[in-house]
Amino acid sequence: MNTLLPNHQRWAAQELATADFGDARLAKRLVRIVADKLANPTASIPHASDSWAATKATYRFLASDQVAAASIRAAHRAATRSRIQHHAAVLVLHDTTELVYTSHPQTTGLGFLDHASSRGLKVHSALATTIDGVPLGLVQQAVWARDVATKGRKSRKRPHVERESQRWLTTLAEAQQAIKAPTRLIVVADREADIYPLFIAPRDDRTDLVIRATYNRGLVGGRKLEDAATTVTWPGSRTVTIPGNGSRAARTATVQIGRTTVQLLRHRTIRARPQHPARRSNWWWSRNASRPQASNRCAGCCGRRCQ
Q1: Which one-letter DSSP state was computed for residue 267?
Q2: From 3.40.50.300, 3.90.350.10, 3.40.190.10, 2.60.40.1180, which CATH number describes the 68-212 domain?
Q3: Fewer CB atoms inside 10 Å of the end CB: C or N, the chain?
């Protein structure tokens, strides 16, 4: 018997208090399922459930037509918003992962994944944290299966709203809608989010973008983004720990941090419109302090002062 289960049940009951399936018994079962998984996160359903009766009840819950994943996520997001409102600023960290079910051939509703022979689901999640990195919860999550019929088609030939890259814009919009003023948002994403439509997406004054740069973008005046490194000032530094990976030992490095202001050219695929002007933004750079001439690296865009 897990003595921590009552604590897990109390937390789950608070977190999922607004979950509504039209049947109080299903809401109660959800709390028990979450508490069981909290007590043993890596266990299978039979092992986490602690009894055959609880195992069968879990499978009945998952098979119920009254149960929708969106309802569970909505309850969690409501609890997340209540935690966020106590903070002046939060980070919104979002990225995409894959759920691989290739070894479950009887599973239906799956799509192809980045590895050609794999089958499963794509999941894009936006996690809100404090500025110090303490998790507050999800503010947005999308799950989808890629249509096999679209495999091999170039995304550039599809409208922007039909591309998978739309997920970055959707997350930005939904985060701003979910997190109310005056809380400040710092929306952070990796290289896949270095897309021009995201830079020109609607964004209020309290929302910043921090995007890791991928492309050596063109600038107004004929220069490129990497050329702007010559004008960077380096006012700060930070020592970071780089973990080992089996072939490389763990080490520490001192990274210098600098910034400059540039004006991006409008992307050639975006029509010239008043709402799509060339954008002026702050770009942050990092370099290894021990090799400053050899390691200038554009870290990404800080969007608060984009004009």
Answers
A1: P
A2: 3.90.350.10
A3: N
